[in-house]
Specification:
alpha/beta, 10 helices, globular, binds N,N,N-trimethyl-histidine
Amino acid sequence: MTKNNSMSLVDLDEGGVDRAFRSDVLEGLSQRQKAVPARWLYDDAGSELFEDITKVPEYYPTRAERSILEAQGAEFCELIGPDRAVVEFGSGSSLKTPLLLSAIEPAAYVPLDIAGDFLRASAAELQAKFPDLAVYPIEADFMRRVELPAAVADMAKLGFFPGSTIGNMVAWTAVDLLRSMRETLGDGSQLLIGMDLIKDPSVLEAAYDDAAGVTAEFNLNLARRINRELDGTIPVEALHHEARWEDTFARVEMHLVADRDIEFEVCDETFRMAKGESIHTENSHKFDERSSTMLLLAGGWTPVKRWLDAEGRFSLILADASEPRNAP
Ligand code: AVJ
């Protein structure tokens, strides 16, 4: 692992370069359709820009999901009950968690995140709000099965995965994640998961291309990050942000599109983009009731209740770990 920090999950080379970032970028830029995995959008600058996105008027998912959490506390309480251990996947700096925790009164809270410092800071904040709650922050990559603390071994679990982050994964990866969550949480567990809904493409594209240009900055920051961390010479001023609704895949794609023919270097490798060519930087899949049910079932979860916000833009789904079974 690392020399810099034995607790960190980031693997740096002798020059301090994140090895996974470098190989993802070099591989991704070598493909016919250039593509960089969306997780690399979230360095410190990117995480702050995402926080800003949640405040622009066009980006409705955060507010819509929060309104469901505010409105449905009584039903959460009834269907989930008290004394569970809530395991939040990719807790970040979530403002939604307190709404859930006050509604269901769990016995423990286990936030999982790959960004350790961030994780411990937000866990401490939450502990201050809920002094009687046992909080066990775990620095982990939740894409893999996670070993939960012994203290919660005998408690029933509730997985919490808000924000429609599942939508950033293609179906193959989403199913892997849902299955590994099921293994992490065990038999008898439940999952409360946010999934954004298919709607008018103009509303979706505006949500990912706000008038103030915050999402454009968020996307362009990836090119800046490549320049900063990987010795890149990408002419950022020759790229523009685009959000495209791809109906066949039911997803909004973010791209960085070249305004002219360009050539640049990253880690001493040369790359070219013709005018109009793009780097694909993010997928945000959207769902309807059937597609969300299908995805959850494929991952080993049976939906038991689905809530929408008052304007019908976003869904929050409660699912049970299902017994594997054949017909019927
Ligand atoms: C929080 C990752 C789900 O896809 O809607 C927002 C990220 N990207 N605007 C999303 C995002 C562009 C967001 N997720």
